[in-house]
Amino acid sequence: MIRSAVTKMTIIAFIAYPFVVFAAVGHVAPKILMAGLLSLLAVRISLKPWIKFSFPWKRWVIVGLLLGTALAVLFVHDFRVRSVKLYPVVIDFCFFLLFFCSLFTHRPLVERIARAQHVDLTSFALIYTRRVTWVWTGVLLVNTIISLVTALYASMKAWTLYNGFYSYLLIGSVFAIEFLVRRRVQHTQMLS
Predict the structure, then answer these.
(1) Which residues contact 55 (CB under 8 A, 6 or more apart)?
(2) Of 39, 120, 135, 146, which residue is 20 to 30 A from 32 by alpha carbon distance?
(3) Phi/psi at 173 (nearest 5 deg)?
């Protein structure tokens, strides 16, 4: 019950983050916004049981997030709005690294996800999942770069619009296209 509530709160917080920052500028100190988000992320990670298997230093990530939160609130007096705008860049870059680094392991990330649904994958499926991991790596890198550019050079409105809408539209579109391609490839493989 608590995990479910925290999960929902975290998802809502991540989606609403750019809009909250846009509305809060001038009313709430940026360091308080960042501290709240880092704390929520630490709670979310601590309640996610699957992370301990794929992410063995989970405890240190949680400690780092909470320590970063405390340091930001206590010692950072000149925390600027630009710093808060960099949060989506950090998250996008972390996802990029997750996909990219998995390409140099025995099983790329998309293959691991596919194996959760289908234990036995054909050699064609293994090639396909590696290619899809490359695609996601590229998409996430592009998303990271655009998020960085909007954080550093765009107006608050443009930053909010990209990070609160277009970024999700990009990811959702790639996911939908990949799903359709996967269905077609699966159908073609069944016919051959």
Answers:
(1) 61
(2) 146
(3) -65, -45
